[in-house]
User: Which sequence fits this backbone?
């Protein structure tokens, strides 16, 4: 039974869809799981960092709901990305430890180093900088330096870091947030186009990592941009429902395949 197992949570990226992670955790906490370690990419790295710092799902959600798009990001022109994550940086500095070693649970973050086209799995050092790098969607956000290397969102190469947890825990639960259909349009703006191109990579690398998941959670959702802050409450409740379904019958989530709802 899952109750007696050491669990690892692999939390995918997805921008504001990370509220689904928070809702899932809210329902999952009622299960009293033995969560041994967490690995997160992009939005999953934000939620994972707060969770491993000891925040409850309700506390995380309260912080998210108190954040607006205007306070979360600021326009950066075209210098290494359209926007910078000044608000996220401030949120991290105000609420979670600076170093991985100060967390309550083992935690890993993925990012991609541009110089060597290399996937980085970061588990020590500057936690804030690691999370910022993991969230830096190419073109949309400016690059973030890790040890002097320009880095972008870990989702480019590994959006569902279940492989990072493989062999460290008894069972891995992968929670994926990008199972949605884009509305067809011939007039995509730069932000939408950048997100579509990025999600093409995400969809392919998620499939590669399914083999490392004992359970795969991938709720179908309506199109939601990574910056649709006005949908945060709805996304949270999708996560709660999905989490309750999982708690009720985990075996429904053992089928490890990913068939996206539609084309980008």
Assistant:
């Amino acid at each position: 039974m899952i109750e007696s197992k050491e669990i690892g949570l692999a939390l995918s990226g997805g921008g504001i869809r990370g509220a689904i992670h928070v809702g899932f955790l809210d329902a999952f906490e009622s299960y009293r799981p033995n969560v041994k370690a967490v690995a997160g990419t992009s939005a999953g790295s934000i939620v994972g960092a707060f969770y491993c710092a000891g925040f409850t799902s309700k506390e995380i959600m309260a912080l998210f709901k108190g954040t607006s798009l205007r306070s979360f990001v600021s326009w950066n022109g075209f210098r290494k990305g359209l926007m910078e994550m000044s608000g996220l940086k401030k949120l991290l500095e105000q609420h979670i430890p600076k170093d991985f070693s100060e967390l309550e649970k083992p935690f890993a973050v993925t990012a991609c180093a541009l110089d060597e086209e290399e996937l980085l799995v970061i588990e020590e050092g500057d936690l804030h900088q690691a999370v910022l790098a993991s969230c830096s969607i190419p073109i949309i956000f400016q690059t973030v330096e890790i040890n002097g290397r320009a880095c972008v969102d870990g989702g480019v190469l590994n959006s569902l870091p279940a492989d990072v947890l493989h062999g460290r825990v008894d069972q891995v639960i992968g929670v994926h947030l990008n199972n949605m259909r884009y509305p067809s349009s011939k007039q995509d703006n730069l932000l939408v186009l950048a997100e579509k191109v990025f999600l093409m990579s995400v969809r392919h690398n998620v499939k590669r990592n399914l083999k490392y998941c004992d359970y795969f959670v991938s709720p179908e959702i309506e199109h939601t941009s990574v910056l649709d802050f006005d949908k945060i409450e709805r996304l949270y409740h999708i996560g709660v429902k999905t989490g309750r379904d999982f708690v009720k019958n985990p075996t429904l989530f053992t089928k490890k395949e990913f068939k996206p709802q539609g084309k980008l």
The longest strand covers residues 34-41. The beta strands are 6-11, 34-41, 74-75, 83-84, 107-113, 118-122, 144-146, 149-153, 171-175, 215-217.
